Amino acid sequence: MTASVTAPRISPPARSAHRHLDVDGVDVFYRESLPDRPDAPVLLLLHGFPSASHQFRRLIDTLGRRHRLIAPDYPGFGHTRAPDGFTYTFERLTDVVEGFTERLGLTRYALYLFDFGAPVGLRLARRHPERVAGLVVQNGNAYDDGLSAAARAFTALTPDTPGADQTILDLFTLPATRAQYEGGTADPALVAPEGWLLDQHFLDLPGRKQAQLALAYDYKSNLAAYPDWQAWLRTHRPPTLITWGTGDPFFTPDGARAYLRDLPDAELHLFGTGHFALEDHLPEVAPLIDGFLDRVWGRSTAPAARDAS
Question: Is the pTM of this model over 0.90?
Fold first, then answer.
C-alpha cells in the first residue's frame, strides 16, 4: 500500500549565509538570505544601536525566500572588525556601508532604516539616489519633531560637558541594554533575552565602548543633516513604508508623522511597542514589508523632477 503524499502545511524558513567581506581594510561581517529566485527584490537592512545584523534574524527567516535580505554589521558593532585608528563617525560608517554595497555589486535596493540605520541609510541615499527603490522606516528618526526630551538631552552632550562620558557609558551597561528592548512594550515576555544579551556581549569587547562613545558625540552631526535629508525626501519622493513603535523612549511617534510632510504618499503604521518593534510585532510588520517590496520593486528609480523647496 502506497502512502499518500500531502502538501506541506508550513512554509519553510529561508536559508541564510553568513560571510565576511573586506572593505578598505574593514572586515565586514554580514548575513543574507538565499531567496528562491535570483531576481528577488533586495532589502538592505541597516541596524541600530546597540545591536547588529542579528537583530534581523527572524525577519530574514520570514521573508528571505521571497526577497534578498542583506544585513551588514557596522564597524564597532557585532562581528565586524575595524583596524586600529578607525574614526568612528556616521560619515565613516556610511563610507563602509557604501563600499560594502559596491563590493557586492548592489545597484538597486530598498533600505530598511532603523535607529542608527536612518543616518547611515539617508547619507547613502543622498550619495546614490538612483539605487534606492524605496524606504522602510522603523523608528529611524530624521526630524526634530521625533526627538524625545531624553534624546535632546543626550544629543546635547559634548566631551566638555561635566560628567558626559559617564552619562554615556551608563547607557552601555546590561540594565540599559535590556531596557532598550523591553521599554515601551506591552508584554516584555514577548521579547527574547538573546537579543540584548548578545548586544551586551559585543559592547563589552575591548575597544567597543570607546567606539560607541565617539559615535554618541557625533550623533549631533545627524541633527545638523536633518534639513538636507528632508530636502532629499521632498525631491526624490521614494516609495516609503513607515512602521513605528509608539513607546520608544528616544524617538516619538511625532517623528513618524513628520515624514508625511515630505512624503505625503507614505504608508504609516503605528504599533503599541518600543524601540525594537520587530521583537514583539514581527507577525504584523513582516507582511507589510513583504507587500511593500512586491509593489515597489518594478518601479523606476529615476529621480523625480520635483521642487525641493
Answer: yes
